[in-house]
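Look over what follows to help learners.
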Amino acid sequence: MLTNHQGKISVVIPTYNEGKNIAKLIPMLVDLLDSVDFKGYIVVVDDNSPDGTFQVVKNFCKIFKNVFIIRREGRLGLGSACAVGFRFSIYELEADVIITMDADFSHDPSRIPEILEKLNEGYDIVIGSRYIHGGGVKDWSRHRVLVSHVANSLIHHLLSMDVKDVTSNFRAYRSTVLKAVDLAKIESNDFSFVPELLYKCRRRGFKVGEVPVFYVERRLGRSKLDVKEIFSFLKTVFRLAFTRRS
């Protein structure tokens, strides 16, 4: 059993058209949180999914008192969804640790206890990493593998980041970290938010740990990664690199 060294835990899950996946994921997370020795919440931030994701989660909210849903007016981006979930977790639920993960099962919820145990070792942030020994990807296309490797290499080179998997959004943050980093000053609203937030955390000296995980291809639905997201990522990395040097 994982002992309660962290206090309250909140799992933040941004969604857009993930109704079928979230219907399977929430019961798994509820069971997981029930099996460990801490108070746990699940916070879904949905961007008004046309597939009915909101109603699926709303039904779970009636059954489980630790499940919450925040509905937004439209597709506003993964990054801003994470920020909304962070604020709700910290200031409404008073969570001590916030975990971010995807709804599509590319992030294995069974790895959460190991991520939390790593946090116990004195880290401020712990990342589920594909790019350390024991981690990897499964059933990804060559194109997606290439994009991921290039993205991480670019960040390592331009921003001198000492984290192996900078683009993984399977993470645990201490709430003190998210309070110290001004989320309102993070310019990215989409996936680029993920590396930008980590970069600013490292700039402030927060300690980052990594545990090996395997990313698997989503079971249901379509990937949200597209050309627009890639160009936004490149713009963000070069912006951070320019401000770093200036």
